[in-house]
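can u pls check wat happens w/ adenosine-5'-triphosphate
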Amino acid sequence: MAVLTDHGSMRNEPSTKERIDMSFTELASFLQAQTEPHILFDREYRIIAVNSAFRKYCNPKTSVIGRTCYEVSHNYTKPCDYSGETCPLAKSRHSGKSERVLHMHHTPEGEEYVSIELTPIKNASGEITCFVEKIEPVKIAKGQTVKNSLTGKSAAYTRMMNLVEKAASSDINTLLYGESGTGKEVVAQAIHRSGKRAAKPFIVVDCPGIPETHFESELFGQERPTHSKTGSAKRGLVDAADGGTLFLDEVGDLPLSIQSKLLHLLETGAYRRHGSADLRRADIRVISATSHNLRKKTEDKLFRKDLYYMLEAFPIPVPAVRDRLEDIPLLIASLLKKVAPERNLTLSDEAMFLLQTYSYPGNVRELRNFLERAALLCESHEIRPEHLLIPEPENGEKPTAQQISPDTQSGQLLSTFSGKRKTLAKMLGISERTLYRRLSELHEKQER
Ligand SMILES: Nc1ncnc2c1ncn2[C@@H]1O[C@H](COP(=O)(O)OP(=O)(O)OP(=O)(O)O)[C@@H](O)[C@H]1O
């Protein structure tokens, strides 16, 4: 097939058969011509070749050839799926097809999310001989763990990040739903900051916090009273958000009387200040959040159906902490930088164990509270269990070795616990030898 090259001339694109017959050298030369970072791997995760764009992106101090992708990109000693992440190579080896995933990579600027497209290369007998990986940095999540932004690399959080990235590239009405404290406002801010309205205001409407009698004037503004000489007109939040984003937090609490006016604004871009007949215009993007079942509210006639469908054009579930337990160590690191930036606090293995086995009904907010309190109570550099004041589990049960399976909290803990295995065994009430046996059983189950 003839295709147009970057320089405007025509060249022949190799047929599928020719591609399959390509030697590694020819593949490496193909990669070199690509503008995005590309890597060529063998089946054992070892890097065979990289292009110049990859060297620029990764800026390695020593050669990466012969090293593994998980070591170079993640500083891991084992493939990503052993560390609780999705591994595109393992997926592609299994499916025989191209796989696309969002991953967090180590780069000279810190950790950043990248979109990975991995294509298996097959020989003439149809066997996969190597893989080509294309890496595209994702703007939305740049510098997640170091900046005041989104933190997480679990499967549930990565699924959300994929949607967040898409929402940020458009102006579509977005509804974030998830339990209280999961970080819906943080996600809304990230969408705003990564979109084309980033330089314009991000205005929060705290729906439960505004009394119904004041809602209209707060949201749409108040005209100057006709007979008043002293009073002045008041700008509303819609006006303040002009050009930017209006974030409707707990939108289910929006009074019914306001819902029709908001619907009119969303449909026409026009609204009236309270006490005025003049139409005003606002160019806003709306992101809403709810921790309640909004659909149920529409069935109970507490929320207008037409407004619900308008607001939920692009729904994004924000996962609860219990559905992304492997993110806890990352969240702790990120939150400690916020709550005690000067102190370089660390956690004892026992404290880490407690935080990784708690159920978090209050989600990230609750984790943040534990750490804020611990930072106050802890006078040294190490947070210990007595500084955390974690409530006892309601049923009084501590995790046991018997509960360890890939989908239980203890199973997750085994894969992600960052402290010493000796402490973990002690906290679980088992010997180190049993712990290692459980761990290898777990890996075997995950491999299948
Ligand atoms: N991914 C994250 N990384 C770091 N901190 C986070 C993250 N998500 C949430 N937080 C912190 O958790 C707290 C709660 O976040 P946020 O207010 O966004 O949650 P919410 O879901 O909007 O809560 P609510 O439903 O109660 O309004 C905040 O202190 C926020 O800084």
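The CA atoms of residues 123 and 445 lie 30 Å apart.
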